[in-house]
Amino acid sequence: MTVVKAKDLIKDYGLNGSTVHALRGITLEFQSGEFAAIAGPSGSGKSTFLHLAGCLDTLTGGTLSVGGQDVANLSKKQLALLRRNSLGFIFQAYNLIPVLTVMENIAFPLTLLGVGKTEIRDRVLQALQEVGLEGMEKRRPKEMSGGQQQRVAIARALVKRPALILADEPTANLDSKIGREILEIMVKLNKNAGTTFLFSTHDPLVMDYARRIVYIRDGQIEKDQVK
Amino acid sequence: MNFASLFELKRMAFRSLARHKAKTILTCAAIMVSVAVYIFMDSWIAGMERESRRNIINYELGAAKLQTKMYFAKKDEMPAYETFQDWETYRDILDESGYHAAPRYVFSGTLYSATGSAPILFNAVDPTAEKRMMAYTGYVELGRFIREGEFAVALGAMTAEKLKAGIPTRPAAPELEEILASELLSAADGDFIRSCYEASETKAAGENLAEGGELRFILKRNLPTGDFDRLWGLMDAIGRNDVRISTVIDLKALPDSIRWDKWVGELWPELTGWEQALLGKLYELDEEEQLYFFTGGGEDEKAAALEAMIRAGFSGAIRHTNQVIDVKVVGMVNSPDPANNFNVGYLPLDILQDEAGMMLEGQVTELLIRDKKMGAADMTSPLENPKTIRAALERGLARRSQTLPSELDVFFWMDYMEDYLGYEAMESGSSRIFSYLLFFLAFFGISNTMLLAILERTKEIGMMRALGMTTGQLYFTFMIEAGLLGILGAALGVLLGCLINIPMVKYGIDFSGMLEELGGNIGYRVAGNFRGAWKLSTIIGSIPVAAVISSLMAFFPIRGAAKKEITSSLRFE
User: Fold this and answer.
1) Which CATH number belongs to the domain containing residue A104 in this structure?
2) According to the model, what pLDDT value does residue B5 have?
3) pTM for the full predicted model
4) Do B19 and A83 touch (CB under 8 A)?
5) What is the pLDDT of residue B206?
6) Which of A152, A226, B1, B60 has its CA 20 to 30 A from that of B536?
7) Are B5 and A81 a contacting pair at CB < 8 A?
């Protein structure tokens, strides 16, 4: 099943009075269950593609469908609901809510979905087990290491079992050992639960783990390599 | 999204408040102070209004008045010619129906003492009836209240002092020396008078001096009653209490002739069609003399013509006669209602009946009415509704086979005090605007706090939106956060406001000194001790109002965050 389908995708944005052509007509598809990376140097457009695929940004031209829905025709609220129901995000800077406990942070997407309290608790504890953070549910983010915080972020992304998890430079703030541990968790989730992962990265470690790497340069696909 | 998830978002909002403790405390403190000041000011205004209204009813007007409709229509001019008779019948009927009634003839004039003069509003009253229902009669501080049949006046204390009548309470040294220099006083009398005064040493330096720098004496507060009486008698003996009323007796009378120019210019344009027809019938123009002459008519026609002229404000229908009445000051009124203490005099009604007085011949301008069950501390009762009073009067008159004359009606005290009520609304409005401003300033603090909080959490907001939080949920979360801030601050403010209010309501603040400096009249009918009043609606309403305003104040900062691109929010450092 096609999770992301882009055709002639264009994204321009203004910067200091001039127009930056971030994506110049990208045509690309990702199937359910993939563990893929979009790689390229800084400014190549990889993060821009990830943001479009995550419905965080609007496209300038071409077509893009996420989870079978043409995102160009969706309202702001529909996009929010699509993100809420079908997508998970892992950010480079973890982006946990500091005032909430680990449990509450992971529960946040389920709260937005309106899941009942008991089910939330069960699913959060399971997610914590999957990322190896059992017993840490009452901690606050500031009481944890970077690696642990990223695990929480992974748990938060996977707790609602989304069709697609988008990870923007997930290992950039971690040393290679911790980075490897994080990637191992993601691989395991991909294999066991069939969760689709799409990375934006220039970290060779992530590229090692990815089974498909799409190289982007100057807003265009340079190479689409399946291992 | 269900209620449970809204509850979760609320919990997050509450935690966020705890995260920014210093900002939360400061903003709460600002709201607390503004809410406390608002409650305090509102209580003060409510207290002043209540006290003023109570004083107007119990010290000035009674709850309602029976008087002519024309008097009411022209009340600002105080038309002393608008009188009515048979008030004794109405009084008796009202008495049977559970009301006190006190007749009055109100007129204006000038009061001359040996040292000066002042314009005075004179109330010619039935002392017995007045004592029964008007509370000011219990506040004759020096001397006594007037009695039937005596040519006497009880003056407002401030005016008496200004005219140097009665016992001086704070004489400057020359004034006291002048009194003592009177040949009518013996040396023992002089010594006695001196012993009644002291130069107040408890006052700050300079305060016991009069304007010219002379030493000021203060009448001793706790003189025995006998000494007061003797002192009053001595003041009387030297003529200090002899005053003269100069006034004009206004009488309605149909003029025998009216100048053509007055007829055409003043009278005719103000008349209605049927009034013109009536006057055209009663008067005839002598072209040679340029005068309209009265040619005769029936009694009813004459009465109707006179009423038409009065209604039209035609000055030729009022005859003026100058009158001078010599009276003695017998007491000084110093009541909690300043309106009684300034430029007001009370005379016995019965001395004004013949040529030596005001030629009233049993007429009065009004009958004050009060429910017998109401005391000096009460407002009005349902029985004091003008319609109820009127119905009682009509029933009583019907029992006597009489009817209430069409020119008479019952007017509620509020109808009579439109000017005061307007002033009250203006005063309370301006005071409230001040406290609203303070209120809003504090809530702009919330807006600022929320702006900073939202700016600080831009990345967090971007993440929450990325995870699927809708704009509506974003508004909900932050408006709840601001609302909680408002509730917390307002709850503390209510507590502080109530604590301040307890002594304000129980004891009040004595501003009599300041009031004296201001000439004794600040518009409100309160003499000096300003007390607050509990206003539950304000106390209870403060918290939800603060919550709503706080939430609304957070709207614009949130709107800014909601408009930002999610990717920009996520990149925000």
Assistant:
1) 3.40.50.300
2) 60
3) 0.67
4) no
5) 45
6) B60
7) no
Instruction: Please check whether residue A15 touches B, CB under 8 A.
Output: no
User: Per residue in B527-568, pLDDT tens?
Assistant: 767 788 888 888 888 899 888 988 888 888 888 888 888 988
The distance from CA A130 to its chain's CA centroid, rounded to whole angstroms, is 17
Distance from the Cα of residue B123 to its chain's centroid: 18
Strand order in the sheet with B257-259: B257-259, B291-294, B283-286
Question: How many DSSP H helices and E strands does chain B contain?
Answer: 21, 17
The whole-angstrom separation of Cα B223 and Cα B154 is: 21
In this model, does residue A116 exceed pLDDT 50?
yes
Decide if A51 and B5 are in contact by the 8 Å CB cutoff. Answer: no
Contacts of B115 (CB under 8 A, 6+ apart): B163, B164
3-state SS class at B188: helix
Phi and psi (nearest 5°) for B346?
Answer: -120, 125
Select from B188, B175, B153 the least CA-distant residue to B219: B175
Domain around A157: 2-226
The reported pLDDT for the residue numbered A87 is: 93
Beta bridge partners of A144: none
Q: What is the ipTM of this complex?
A: 0.91
Shortest CA distance from B474: residue in chain A: A112
Domain total for chain A?
1
Helix boundaries (H) for B238-347: 260-262, 273-282, 299-311
pLDDT beneath 50: ranges in chain B: 202-206
* Per-residue pLDDT band at A178 (split at 50, 70, 90): confident
Q: State whether residue A66 is helix, strand or coil.
A: strand
Nearest CA in chain A to B468: A84
**Is B459 in Cβ contact with A114 (below 8 Å)?**
no
Closest CA to B100 of B378, B350, B405, B352: B378
Q: Which residue has the tokens 């309202």?
A: A75
pLDDT of residue B504: 86
The pLDDT score that the predictor gives to residue B520 is: 60
Q: Which position has the higher pLDDT, B10 or A14?
A: A14
Contact predicate A154/A186, CB 8 Å: yes
The whole-number pLDDT of residue A138 equals 93
Where exactly are the structural domains of chain B?
3-58+420-571, 167-240, 252-319
Question: From CA A163, how far away is CA A157, in angstroms rounded?
Answer: 11
Please give the structure tokens belonging to residue B55. Answer: 């004083």
